[in-house]
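Hi there,

I know you've been waiting on this one. I reran it after we fixed the sequence typo, so this is the corrected version. Both the input and the resulting structure follow.
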Amino acid sequence: MSKYNTISFDAADTLFYIEKGLGGSYFEVLKKYETSYSPKDISAAFKKYFTKRKGLHFKGLSGKALYLAEKEWWYGLVRDIFIDLGMFDKFDQYFNDLYEYFANEAWDVYPDTIPTLKRLKDIGFNVVITSNFDSRIYDVCKKFEINQFVDHFTISSESGYSKPDKELFYLSLKKVQAKTFESIHVGDNYNLDYVPSTEIGMKSILIDRGNEFDKEIDICISRDFSKIFEVINES
């Protein structure tokens, strides 16, 4: 019998991904507007301004107030990107189109996501999502039928905390009354997923689907979700 009973997943780039890439998706929505930006330039500007922004987390908001706060956060980021690249007419209309695009069309699901989640539920595991995401995650997960396998979602915009803040992990585990040493966290980001979850006593698995991580560091790493079941069975 495994010593683990709970699996926590990051969401974006772990369970699902941006099908056309970040810059490609922004560019896709731009096609009906008269602009000349390249996906590469957009991606570079996004990285520049995303790292400067305060985390996507709010305390005490729900419903319409939360929706407006989330949208305002993203509006500020996208506005900064295009002020840098060169602002254009109908930017507000473009932003609204882009915001809706990332609630549905932008994403695709990894082929091992649903089989893995189903298998985990079939063998009795708690499954939670612990993610720096906004409330559009519910639409994305519903689209791919991920939600039917998830016991609870803990997302930054609703909780008031964003990774690498360890409190987000504690809140997530509390929802299923799981202890850290009984839980595994699975995510694609070393600093946001692997480090904080490991530091609070969880077993962590870094997902490196592109085989890009520095293998000289001795960590639990996998190109897919198969490692989850290896860890479960060896415990």
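Quick highlight: The radius of gyration is 18 Å.

Best,
R. S.
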